[in-house]
Amino acid sequence: MSVRPAAGIAFPVTVPVLVIGAGACGLTAALAGHDAGAEVLVLERDRVPRGSTALSSGFIPAAGTRFQREKGIADSPSLLAADLFAKNKHRSDPAVTAHVAERAGPTLEWLADRHGIPFTVVEGFLYAGHQALRMHATPKRTGADLMDRLLAAIDAAGIEILTDATVTALYADPDRRVRGVEIRRPDGSGERIGCGALVLACSGYGGDPALVRQHIPEMGDALYFGHAGNRGDALRWGEALGGFSRDLGAYQGHGSVAHPYGILITWALMMEGGFQVNREGHRFSHENRGYSEQAVDVLQQPGGVAFDIYDERLHKLGLDFEDYRAAAEAGAVRSAPDIETLAARLAIPAAELAQTLVETREMAAGERTDPFGRDFTQKPPLSPPFYGVQVTGALFHTQGGVEIDAEARVLRRGGTALPNLLAGGGAARGLSGPERDGYLSGGGLLSAVVLGRIAGETAARITGELR
Ligand SMILES: Cc1cc2nc3c(=O)[nH]c(=O)nc-3n(C[C@H](O)[C@H](O)[C@H](O)COP(=O)(O)OP(=O)(O)OC[C@H]3O[C@@H](n4cnc5c(N)ncnc54)[C@H](O)[C@@H]3O)c2cc1C
Question: Strand 40-43 vs strand 13-20: parallel, antiparallel, or unpaired?
Answer without folding.
Answer: parallel
